[in-house]
């Protein structure tokens, strides 16, 4: 069940806009959604069109966050960032906070998703 669906351009200004739309959700939901959006900016470039969906799951009392972008080839990779690294922690945060996460690929897009316990 989708509670929120936003069509955005992945830009640094979109992150606070996304957090504003998610203000009724907890910190972890806002953080994971922002990190998934930021990954699009970092790996596909500013201005990439994205769709963000946030809703409940049918099973297990979870909140599901999905970020869909138009590049099915650029898959997220869980990195082990060093203590002094300036990037590479976004997906590690999602991995630490989410019950589970993954990627669904289509012929002309991919959706990176995660589920957090309510």
From TrEMBL:
Keywords: ATP-binding, Kinase, Nucleotide-binding, Serine/threonine-protein kinase, Transferase. CDD domains: HATPase_RsbW-like. It comes from the Bacteria. InterPro entries: Anti-sigma-factor_SerPK, HATPase_C_sf, HATPase_dom. Residues 28-113 form the Histidine kinase/HSP90-like ATPase domain. Coiled coil: none annotated. GO terms for molecular function: ATP binding. This is ATP-binding protein. It comes from Streptomyces olivaceoviridis.
């Amino acid at each position: 069940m989708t509670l929120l669906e936003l069509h955005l351009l992945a830009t640094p200004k979109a992150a606070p806009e996304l957090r504003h739309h998610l203000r009724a959700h907890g910190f972890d939901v806002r953080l994971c959604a922002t990190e998934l959006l930021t990954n699009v900016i970092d790996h596909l470039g500013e201005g990439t069109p994205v769709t963000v969906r946030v809703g409940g799951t049918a099973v297990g009392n979870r909140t599901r966050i999905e970020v869909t972008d138009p590049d099915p080839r650029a898959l997220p990779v869980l990195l082990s960032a060093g203590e002094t690294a300036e990037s590479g922690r976004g997906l590690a945060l999602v991995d630490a906070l989410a019950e589970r996460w993954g990627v669904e690929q289509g012929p002309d897009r991919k959706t990176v998703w995660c589920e957090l316990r309510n």
